[in-house]
Design brief:
single chain, 214 residues, alpha/beta, TIM Barrel, four-stranded parallel sheet, three-stranded parallel sheet
């Protein structure tokens, strides 16, 4: 589901900033702030109408940013995401219909899992890089390690999201199960709306420093 080159980019980034953008005019300044802080991958969530215009703006003006779309729940959204040129797509859950449709459209796609049944459904569809969501409230890294043990020989890796921060990201990134982490704390919605690009850059730099220290 994730071509080797894309998988290698995400794994090298270690941290994917996860954002909710209300105003597409904020997209380019946010992406630039993240890059200045050393974060070169981001997921724009489809929770607002601004997400796809924001993606298009980033692709046009900050092409060095690896930008994907999250919260993809319908086939119509898959079509729109492909048209907008997203590098990858992500969903909070494991919906076989959406995964198959994304495959048909050539969109690298990471479904979300929280149970062994979710993992087996993802494996059946050829997924090998999978979102673990919500990570912390479902038991965190310990839960993931126990759940994945029967499948480790298949070469799976995971991008955890939900409750991660600068204090617990180290434990996740030390695990061979983790290709990268999703970080929504780096550029929170209220900070974006306040146009506080310096705080976003500082958060990104802190996360980059921690990730590179591992």
């Amino acid at each position: 589901m994730f071509p080797k080159e894309l998988h290698d980019q995400i794994k090298a980034s270690k941290v994917v900033a996860v954002l909710v953008i209300d105003d597409a005019a904020h997209a380019v300044p946010v992406a630039q702030a993240l890059l200045r802080g050393g974060i070169g991958a981001m997921e724009l969530t489809l929770r607002t109408p601004a997400a796809l215009p924001a993606l298009k703006a980033i692709k046009a003006e900050v092409p060095e940013m690896l930008a994907g779309i999250g919260t993809i729940l319908t086939t119509e959204q898959v079509d729109a995401v492909v048209e907008a040129g997203a590098a990858f797509g992500v969903a909070p859950g494991m919906n076989a219909k959406i995964v198959k449709y994304a495959q048909d459209k050539g969109l690298p796609f990471g479904p979300g899992i929280m149970t062994p049944s979710d993992i087996e459904a993802a494996i059946e569809l050829g997924c090998r890089t999978i979102k673990f969501f919500p990570a912390e409230t479902s038991g965190g890294l310990k839960h993931l390690q126990g759940m994945v043990a029967p499948y480790q020989h298949l070469g799976l890796d995971f991008i955890p999201l939900g409750g991660l921060n600068s204090k617990n990201m180290v434990d996740y990134l030390k695990s061979p199960l983790i290709s990268a982490i999703g970080g929504s704390w780096i550029a929170k919605k209220d900070v974006i709306n306040a146009e506080d690009w310096d705080t976003i850059e500082a958060n990104a730099r802190e996360a980059r420093t921690i990730a590179d220290s591992i």
